[in-house]
Predict the structure.
Amino acid sequence: MSEPMESERVDLVLVNPGGREAVYQELGGELTAIEPPLWCRLIAGYALDRGKTVTIIDSEAEEIGPDEVAARVKALNPTLVVMVVFGHQPSASTQQMVGAAHACEALKDTAPELPILIVGGHVSALPEKTLAEEKVDFACKGEGPATVVQLLDWLQSGAAEEPADVAGLVWRDGEDVIRVNKPAALTHDLDADLHGNVWHLLPMDKYRAHNWQCFGDLGSRKPYASIYTSLGCPYKCSFCCINAPFDANRYRMRSPVQVVAEVDRLYRTHGVKTFKIIDEMFVLNDRHVNAICDGLIELGYSDELNFWAYARVDTVKPAMLAKLRKAGIRWLALGIESGSKHVRDGADKALKQEDIIGIVRDIQKAGICVIGNYIFGLPDDTLETMRETLDLSKELNCEFANFYSAMAYPGSQLYHQAVAQGWALPQSWSGFSQHSYDCQPLPTEHCTAAQVLKFRDDAFHEYFENERYLGMVAQRFGWETRRHVEAMSTTRLKRKLVDEA
């Protein structure tokens, strides 16, 4: 379905909020990825299939501020505005609340008569708090598509009664009472209902890959797309909030045939060769992964493709690595988390260090690059165990590394633990961003939050300025990439918490 004519009233406007400056500081300019917003796509496709007219405003990709977003929405005069604050990874939903809050405020100042529904992982974790604090009319408990369409139907019906039958809706009953309706059932037929095939509604020329995904060919960051093959995760890591919108550790898969068809459509229609697989855990179900890889290989051009995806060390099987690489999987992001077995056990990551090293080496031997993900400041961490984590990262010498501070993301076990024990939490949603000025990670039993954050930032520079790492980069990707990494590591983030310590 094409976009409505200007003279027609749009049923639904979906907004992907911006705010990269507050979230990433100087890093947001060129180094970070700009990804197509998955849940804007999924909700849009669901609504279009049910006869609604839809527009997507991706303020992050188009680099437009709250005032311009508000002006565009007002001109469209939709029946419903949906602020979509899911993210591209678990932490991003909460940090996106910064841009979402500003956009909602600007919209209410510009067009107070337009109803706003806010949806997302953060919102589903804290639905009543979100509705009470943000300038919105409704919030959503759950993943969103059914709630959006049911609310649209209710608004368009002109019904006088309250929206008590809109599944998953959080609404005000008078001035002082907030009601939370029973959540909508999870969508089971992902291919039919959450296909997200609305690429024509997105500014496809604006999206770009992470810098590291294109090491060796930094000019290939565009065109770029992110796709999904599954939703949810069966694991229960204490620091993760990925299942907050689903209320369960569920794992739902798309048809491999449909996944491959989407890749082919993006390749042929938009020239996309660089992809992210958004799944929290792509390398998990052998049958699912093998079928997708077989389909990609059968396309005949998988050697042109550059995918990256998430995996766990204990789900990567050496026998599948050659097929993954042949299918175009060039990067795997591994949640290694800690160099201390004691700390890993406390975070529900019971892995042996020799297994971690062995799997990383097997992946690299298959010609696949590894992104090691590490967390400093898990509950049992000390300065010594954080040092063990950094030492492990340097021993592994992965082609790229992400260093995180442990955060009590809303919807995670750590968040509930932090609230129950009265631990200090960030005073603003931007404080949940790993790279923001006001970033405030959790303290541990042995370290202050400032110590954790300083260790994380120092670790970043120690790793990326290490000659062994830089030499590997130059040998594998060339001197241009080495110089790019050296330039990247000259940026030192400003931190309020560390400055005040």
Remarks:
- The CA atoms of residues 191 and 258 lie 7 Å apart.
- The two ends are 56 Å apart (CA to CA).
- The mean pLDDT is 89.
